[in-house]
Amino acid sequence: MRRRFIADTFSPDTGHPTRAALTGEQAAHLARVLRAQPGQVYDIVANGFLHRAEITAVTDSEVAFILHEELEADAALPIHLLLAVCKFDHFEWAIEKATELGVARITPILARRTEKHLALAAPKRADRWRRIALESSKQSRRTDIPDIADPSPLAAALAAETAPLRILLSETEQTLSLASALSVSPNEQRTTNNGQLSLAIGPEGGWTPEEMSLFTTHAWIPVTLGPRILRAETAAIAAIAIASSAMQQASASAS
Q: Containing domain of residue 27, as a range?
């Protein structure tokens, strides 16, 4: 299996690129560690497309490729994860694993019960979180990188949300499970294989009553993952896995 990298630059800017390059740390790794040479072939993701690519030039600061045939690749899951900011090591673990599972977008949420020092520091961590997503994308052989939005207050994030199916993991919901909320039958209009899905997961201590009212106003569906109280990062990964399975089943049923 060929090594895979995500291009730092490519041309042209639109359509299928014909050339690409790795720069910075990626170029240094290829040049110094892997001892890359012109003529060697790698898998390169450029502009969302996966290609077989041949090295044309190598320096410590840039490795240039010519892109050959496009290869088959899986698309990202159409899942937008709205995850309340929590302890940064836990939050970064969630970003890493959510990326590996294939989510398309992650928005860090500044909730009422987000610890104040975390909320104040979160905007400065956004670039680090994007780098984590990039590395996780390469490790899991994704052909894209999830969009990591800037940290957002809950009200603004909910007002901007456009996904047709919006799921809120709620500690107070005891009846409707996530799997049931995502189920698709011939008589239901709700689908998970064609439309986008948003998942919202709260901070330690849960959402405040005012925040729960906001979710209701914006037509979010509260669900439960079961009787146990899970950490936010655990709930996020469990929810994504359940949603991914439901999407695959819905897609299989439709085909």
A: 4-70
